[in-house]
Design a protein that fits this description.
The protein has 5 helices and 4 strands, in the order H-H-E-E-E-H-E-H-H. It has 124 residues and is of the alpha+beta class. It has one domain (7-123): VSR Endonuclease (Endonuclease, Chain A, 3-Layer(aba) Sandwich), CATH 3.40.960.10. Helix content is 50%, strand content 20%. The protein has a 4-stranded mixed sheet with strand order 1-2-3-4, sandwiched between helices. The radius of gyration is 14 Å and the shape is globular.
Length: 124
């Protein structure tokens, strides 16, 4: 479930749980509502050498909430690299922007449920 994450990463992840962004707060609230209550998500979850914003081991799904700096080319490259690492571990990644979470909850929820359904269909 942690894919060899270091103790230092666990400590840092714990600190990050106490300082969420507004987008992370909004997503955490959404993840605790119907129809998502059947899935357990963890906040700031260490995986290998990364910290996922949200992770469901049941679904093997990472949800990332991207702030404005994710639009920078070097950050996009890093995010792509990180997503590839996750995929090599058998973990899917879905990304939303802060704006998606704070302004488009209905659209975000629909997209998230579609991704979950797709992942569940792949397991059948």
């Amino acid at each position: 479930m942690f894919y060899g994450a270091s103790m230092e990463l666990f400590k840092f992840a714990e600190k990050m749980r106490y300082a969420p962004t507004k987008g992370e707060e909004g997503m955490w609230s959404l993840l605790k509502t119907e129809p998502l209550t059947d899935y357990k998500f963890r906040r700031q979850h260490p995986i290998a050498r990364y910290i996922a914003d949200f992770y469901s081991h049941q679904l093997k799904l990472v949800i990332e909430i991207d702030g404005g700096y994710h639009r920078c080319s070097f950050q996009k490259e890093y995010d792509d690299f990180r997503d590839e690492d996750m995929q090599e571990l058998g973990i899917s990644v879905i990304r939303f922007t802060n704006e998606d979470v704070l302004q488009n909850n209905t659209k975000l929820l629909k997209r998230l449920l579609e991704e979950i359904q797709s992942l569940r269909n792949d397991k059948i």
